[in-house]
UniProtKB/TrEMBL annotation:
GO molecular function: hydrolase activity, acting on ester bonds
InterPro entries (UniProt xref): Calcineurin-like_PHP (IPR004843), Metallo-depent_PP-like (IPR029052)
Keywords for this protein: Signal
PANTHER family reported for this sequence: PHOSPHATASE DCR2-RELATED, PHOSPHATASE DCR2-RELATED-RELATED
Segment forming the signal sequence: 1-17
GO cellular component, one term: cytoplasm
Keyword Iron part of the UniProt annotation: no
Limits of the Calcineurin-like phosphoesterase domain: 340-601
Pfam family, one: Metallophos
Protein name as it appears in the record: Calcineurin-like phosphoesterase domain-containing protein
Amino acid sequence: MWSQIIAASWAFTACAAAPLLARNFPAGQCVVDVKIETCGDFNCKLDGYHRIDAFLTQRIEANEIKVIEEGKEAPEGTGWYPAPHSAHEGVTDQGGPTLWSRRDYDLQQAGKVVDLVVVRPGRWANSTEDFVRSSVNLGLGEAAGAVAFEDYREYDSVSSGWIYLEYTVAGPRDPITDVQVVACSGDSVGAHCGNELLGKGWKRRDTDLNGPTANGSHIYIFTTTQLQTNRECVTSLKVVDDENDKTVSVNLNDGTTGDELYLEVTKARDEDCITSIRPIDTSRYFAEPWYDVVTDSNGQPADVNAGIGSADPIFIYTSKLVERPRKEPIKLSFSSDGTFRIALFSDLHHSHHSAICRDVPEQIEADCSEEYSFAFMGAVLDHTEPDLVVIDGDLYAENDRKQDKTTYPQLTDGAIVKAIRPIIERGIPFAVTYGNHDAEGSLLREEIQRAMDIQPGFVGSRGLNQLDGIGNYKLDITKSKDSEDIAHRLWFFDSRSYTYFGNGTNSGDYGRVEQSQVDWYSANADASINAMAFFHIPVAQISDAIGLNTTARIGVHGESVCPQGNGCSNTPKLDDPYVSLFDAFVNAGDVKATFSGHDHSNDYIIEAQGIQLTYDGSAGYTAYSAGDANYNREMRVIDVAEHGKTVSTFKIIDDILAGTVHRNESEPIVTLF
C-alpha cells in the first residue's frame, strides 16, 4: 500500500476572520483540512479535496503544522490540535508520527494562515522560498538505499526514502532580521550543512553558492525573521571584495580559486525591510519583476561565483514586498475590427544553466545557446504584435550544461526567469500549460504556479482545487473592451507528466487529462460559444494512422505520436487506457480546434470528427528535433476573426542560416473553422 496526501481549499487570500476548524470556506480560499489516504494505486481520491502528487511511505491522517515523532510529546506552546488518528500505517492510535496544527485567532485575523501544503521528496530543508518544513522524515530514511545525486541534489522519493511535509503561510511577510552564511567542507553532505541553525528557527536558501563542480566548500545563506530586542531588520545586501567592508565573515568562494567575496549586510530599525532573499543559479543575470539584484562595489549585478570558471553564475535577489502583489484582472477582448491574435510557443526547454543546443546546423553549433531562443521569441513578438501569448508546456527541462556537457538536476527558479522574460519585457498578457518536464526539477507544479501568479501579465490560474493537475482554467474573450458579451473561449488543461504504477514508479507512459478535469469542462462548456483548447500532451486521435481522420495531413509528421496515457507509437490505443477528453469535445460541441506540443518534430494539422487537431512544433534551441540538424525552430500564430466565428493559423520559422524570421511559406495559411 502507498499513501498520498490530500489537502483542501487553498489560494492566496486569507480566511482571516474564521477558525480553521470550520470546513465551509469558499473553494480556493485557504487550507481548511489535511488528510492522508492510503490506496492501492495512483488514483487516490477524496471528494472535495485536491490531491498532492507525492507518495508517502507512511500514513498520516488528519497558522503552523508540525509532525511529531513516535513517542514524543505534543509541541510546546498553546493552541495545538492533534490529528484524530495515528500517522503510521498498520499500527494502533498510540503508534507512529502524529500531525498537529496550531490555530491562533489573532494571527488568523492578520491573514496569517496556511495556504499551501506540499509533500516534497529529498532530504533538503527549506527547499524554496516561503516554505516551512516539518523536521520529521515521513519516508524510510537512509535504510531505503542509496540517494541519487548525493553530491548535488536528489528528488526521487521512492528510492531515497526522504519525504517531508512543507507548508506556506499567507498574509504579510515578516521582515528578515538577520543573515548568516555557512561554509561546509566540500567533502561533507551538503544537505546537512547548517542543520544546527534550522533547529533554532533559521531558514536555508537551497542554492549552493559554489554551484556544481566548483570544487570548494558548500556555501549556503541562512535567514531568520525572529525579532531581535532592538527590532532591527535587514535593509540591504552588497557583495564586497574588501575584507574591511565585510559584515559576514565567510568567503562566498571559500575553498575555490574564485575571487574572495563577502556579504555586506545593512540594518535599520523597522523600516524598508527586506522580506525575501533568493540566490538563483542561472547562466547570467536576468531582471526579475518585484525583485532587485544584489550589486557589487561597482554597482553591477554581483556574480557570487566570480572567478570560478567551472561553476554557473549565481546572483542574489532581494525583495521588500510585504505581501504578494494583488493584480487587477486583465480583460481579453476583440479589437474594433473583430480580430484577436495569439502567439503560441511550445517546448522551449529552458534550463537554469547555459545549456547545449540540440539538433542545430554545424555552422552555429559552437556559438548556439538559449540566447537563440530569446532572439527568436523576441523577433516573433515584435513582428506579430499578439494580443495574447500562450506557452503550451515544457517551459523547462534538464539539459546538458554547455561548459562541461554534464546534466545536473534542474533548478527551476533559475529557468523561470528565462522562459517568460521576452513576454514580460514587452508587457503582453500570457497564459501557460504545464508539460511533462516542467515539474521534474526543483519546483513542484504548485510552486511553479505560485511563481506564475505574481508575474505581470499572467492571465492563467491554478484552477479548482478538487481537479487533478494544476492549471485547468478557461479564458473568455469579450466582443469588445467595453462589452461583457463572451464571443470566444480558450480552454487550458494540465495533461500531467506520466502515469504510475501502484507503488509510485513511472509506468513509462505519458500523463493524461483525468476524468475530474473532463467533468469540469463538460459541466461548463457552451456550444453557442466557439472555443479552442490547449494542452501539452496530444490526444491519441491526432495520429494519422488509426483511421479516424477525415482530412489530409498539413505539415510535417517527423516522429512518432506520444499521446496521453500511451507510450510513443503512430498507432496508439484509444481504449486502454481510455482518455475521455476528445469524446467530451465532440459531445459538447464548442471546441473546434486543439493545440499540443510534446512531440517536437510534429507540426501538422489533421481533422478528426469535425475537430482540427494541431501540433505546435518546437521553439527552443535546447530542445531536440528528432535528430534533424536542418530543422527550423518554429511557433504558431492563431488569428481569430469575425469576433470568434473564424480562425486561421500559420507557422513562423527561424530561418537561422539565412538570418531571417518569417512565415513558413511552403505551407498555406490554414483555416481551422
